[in-house]
Amino acid sequence: MIEYRTGTAPRRSRLYRDTREGKILGVCAGLADYFGVETWVVRAIALIALVMFTIPTLIAYFAAPLVIKEKPRDFYGSRDEEGFWRGVRTEPSETAGALRHKFRDIERRMRAIEAYVTSREFSLNRDFRDLES
I need a labelling partner for 126 at 20 to 30 A (CA). Which of 24, 44, 89, 108 fits? Predict the structure, then answer.
């Protein structure tokens, strides 16, 4: 089960360098995480840009760490949380549908619990337990 810390949802508007997943300075890994794509895709685009526009690409790549902060170590609580937020960023409608389904299931279970607790069977079982003890 995924446990989310209250009030600690990562800020989606921030771009960070991901030095843990990155090869050189973490710029491509940070961009990949921000846009919710595989890291190799961003690296391939960077390589193509390097071949086509060598000087501007090098300047941009080595200037980016001066502007973009490093991703905090505790940015996500767990791998599951990271996957959840990546899904929210890349497929928000799919994530909303999954949450809607989960809440409907929780509501169904709560109704079943409420029906049992308010039933005569629950009262009878409680009375029998009281007699046994």
Answer: 108
Shared domain for 32 and 63, answered yes or no, is yes
* Residues 66 and 117 both lie in one domain: no
Q: What is the pLDDT along the chain (133 residues), one digit of tens a residue?
A: 444 444 444 444 477 877 777 788 888 888 887 887 888 999 999 999 999 999 999 999 999 888 888 876 666 667 777 677 666 666 667 777 778 888 999 999 999 999 888 888 888 888 888 887 7
Number of domains in the chain: 2
What is the rounded CA–CA span in Å between residue 98 and residue 80? 15
Domain that includes residue 96, residue range: 92-133
Q: pTM of this prediction?
A: 0.50
